Amino acid sequence: IYDDTNITIYSGKITAVVTTVKVELGETTPPNSSIPARINNDIPVMQLKFTAGETGPVKITSLTLQETGTINLQGISGYCGFTNLKLIIDNDNSGDSSSGDYILSEINSFGSYYLDNASVSFDFYAEPIEIAANASKYVLLLASTNGNYDAGQTIQFAMVNPAMSYTASDSISGEPIYDDTNITIYSGKITAV
To answer: Is a pLDDT exceeding 90 seen at residue 107?
Structure first.
């Protein structure tokens, strides 16, 4: 027995869909505030919220921010007011480094980050941020200061061009994903008093 139909039967068409990703300030990003001048401090500066699209998980492997305040290289004797910058996974969405959070990447100011109003890039390819479909993860920037800054100086950071400021890919296909946010995202301004 055999089928004598003379038509071609096609399977359904499968189209790969690459997911999306969006970044914005987190709900508990530190607001404008003040700190005492000339002391060592670990200061939460900026919280970012990364949200994966509903079609699939996202992997983020790098982030670039720009220092827009006046503390860097303008303090006492012209030395850098930062000792290091830490990028922290803010698991509890507190806007502060707390129990359960962990350091994703850290940069020493005397190595890769030493110029006023310079960009700083955090690379974490070995341990990327994994975000499930239709979910969010929070990342916190923590600045460690030393005594090399004066009253009136400020700490502030910005994500100048979100579409180009971080590297994201679809976790399933590996295809790159680009954020369509086209506005600069600023942290609160922290002023030394």
So the answer is: no
Distance of CA 86 to the CA centre of its chain: 11
pLDDT tier at 60 (50, 70, 90 boundaries)?
very high
At a CB cut-off of 8 Å and minimum separation 6, what does 89 contact? 101, 102, 104, 129, 137, 138, 139, 140
pLDDT at position 75: 45
For the residues of 98-126, what is the DSSP string, one character each? -TT-EEEEEEETTTT--STT-EEEEE-SS
- Measured CA to CA in angstroms, residue 54 lies from 89, 130, 132, 154, 170 at distances of 22, 14, 9, 39, 12
